[in-house]
Amino acid sequence: MTNETTIRNDKRTIFGWAMYDWANSAYITIFGAVIGAFFAGTIMTEDTYWGLSSEALFSIFIGLGSIVLLLAMPILGAVADYTNAKRRFLRNFAVVGAVFTLSIAFVPDGQVPAFLFVLVVSQFGFVAANVFYDGFLPEIASDDTIDQVSSKGFALGYLGGGLYLLMALVLITLASDEPGAALSTTLAARIAIFGSGIWWMIFSIVSLARLPSGSGATRKRTLGEYASIGFSRTLETTRRLKDFPQLTRFIIAFVIYNSGTGTVIAVSGVYASETLELELQTIALAFLIVQFVAVGGAFLLGALANRIGPKASVMVTLVVWVGVAVGAFFLPVGASTGFLALAAVIGFVLGGVQALSRSLYGSMIPGEASAEFFGFYSVFSKLSGFGPLIFGIVAATTGSGRAAILSIAAFFIIGLVLLSRVNVEEARASREEWEFDTQVTGGQEDR
Q1: How far is CA 336 from the centre of its chain?
Q2: 440 within some domain
Q3: 108 vs 131: CA distance, rounded Å
Q4: Is the pLDDT of residue 419 over 50?
Q5: For the segment 288-321, what is each residue's pLDDT rounded down to a tens digit?
Q6: Model pLDDT for residues 333-390, shown as the tens digit of each residue
Q7: How far is residue 275's CA from residue 389's CA, in Å, rounded to a whole number?
Q8: What number of other Cβ atoms are within 10 A of residue 115's Cβ?
Q9: Into how many domains does the chain fold?
Q10: By the 8 A CB rule, do 28 and 212 touch?
Q11: How far apart are CA 5 and CA 429, in angstroms?
Q12: 67 to 60, 213, 236, 263: CA distances (angstroms)
């Protein structure tokens, strides 16, 4: 087992951990700012495909892909806990995500199925790597620093993603669709997508060099043995959740309100392109605003959490999120100024709700099973894939992205009500009641 006295609250380790947020945030920003609009404007060469608009198809497919992937996450986390190999798993899945991100840039116009396949695999790499990244948090921070460390990760992520997006925005602004132009908007978008994969790879190396590799011998096992370990422990953890009502209540609240935030991130670009009819430059600028405002927002809401607690701080952000959904519904076509103003509001609350939710969850789970429980956390995030799915269904049914965007407000309202009923102190106290036997023989737990 890794020596906790060596890495907990160690500045070098915390910086290395936070740098992975810096690394993968280039992908996140390009996903929201460019990939959705790129799909709608370039890959979709017809108004509809399989009878669906780009807005409906993109959001439905992202939602379905998230739901399909969710079963793998807690298994990966459980295996990482047993094999003491968080860093290795983080590295491998980061490589998968980054390589398939590079591949997105080479999908030809009109190849909708190929584009969606490559995009979902890149998402799988991103999500799977985050299981192991998040699993380091309880190991490197104590209860009194976990909020600040989590916020630092998100803040560095927003800063790194923002810097990359700024470079991409300059490139896209210099592009032109005029005949004879040296750089077309489509080519600029492809370069921006490709570059985000390169950024992800390079800064992952910096992060991994500062993270603990784990200690102790790890016997190699067959794929079947790993699956047996993962499933048995995951099922046991799921069974025991019923005995911890506060943690379970938080999980349900998180699934619901995170469906709202996840939907905003996933569909903003395609909504702005198709419903609001905004140009790629405006959409990229909006996401750039989100990135840099979110840096301050993550720190300010982290400070607010010190005064009123992380739970109350998250509740404040959810009230603001309701206003964002309603405001987006009323934005008229071509309202670039209003869209940019909403982006600033989103930036302030986005970093806070993500960082504080992660640290609040991390403070309620047993440290010896952190990767497994953050595997569950990733499952909850993938259950949040129902948000884009519902958005797409509403958009397809009503023929309007506006009705779909308004439906997001319900996620924040319901999540707010459920979160208000969570007793955080009781949930933290219950950590001592969890018992795990980490001795594994032949792929089966010794009990």
Answers
A1: 26
A2: no
A3: 32
A4: yes
A5: 888 778 777 777 887 888 888 888 999 999 999 9
A6: 988 999 999 999 988 887 678 778 877 887 887 766 666 676 666 666 666 667 888 8
A7: 17
A8: 23
A9: 1
A10: no
A11: 22
A12: 11, 31, 21, 14
3-state SS assignment for residue 38: helix
Residue 344 lies in a domain: yes
- What pLDDT is attached to residue 276? 87
* CA atoms of 21 and 418, how far apart (whole Å): 29
Helices vs strands, H then E, count in the chain: 19, 4
Q: Taking the chain, what is the end-to-end CA distance rounded to the nearest angstrom? A: 20
CA distance 410 to 158: 27
User: DSSP letters along 312-342, please?
Assistant: HHHHHHHHHHHHHHHHHHHPPTT-HHHHHHH
Expressed as residue numbers, the domain containing 282 is: 4-212+222-432
Burial of 95 (0-12, 13-18, 19+ CB in 10 A): middle
**DSSP character for 364?**
T
Structure-block tokens of residue 164: 């990359």
Which is nearest to 53 in space by CA: 283, 382, 275?
275
Classify residue 303: in a domain, yes or no. Answer: yes
Sign of CA dihedral 383, 58, 168, 193: positive
Backbone angles phi, psi at 85, to 5 degrees: -130, 40
In a domain, 188, yes or no: yes
Distances (CA, A) of 320 to 250, 325, 399: 20, 9, 27
Task: Give the pairing type, strands 52-53 and 48-49.
Answer: antiparallel
pLDDT confidence band for 404 (50 / 70 / 90): confident
Distances (CA, A) of 1 to 182, 214, 230: 56, 6, 19
Tokens of 98: 């980054």
Q: Mind listing the pLDDT tens digit for each residue in 64-100?
A: 777 777 667 667 766 666 667 788 889 999 999 999 9
| Contact indicator for 133, 20 with CB cutoff of 8 Å | yes
CATH code for the domain in which residue 145 is found: 1.20.1250.20
Residue 337: CB atoms within 10 Å: 10
C-alpha span between 22 and 133 (Å, rounded) = 12
**Ordered alpha helix ranges (H), 275-309:** 280-308
Above 50 in pLDDT, residue 1? no
CB atoms within 10 A of CB 77: 32
| Between residues 221 and 93, the one the model is more confident about | 93
Dihedral pair phi/psi, residue 218, rounded to 5°: -125, 115
Sign of CA dihedral 394, 400, 406, 412: positive
Of 290, 369, 370, 375, nearest to 324 by C-alpha is 290
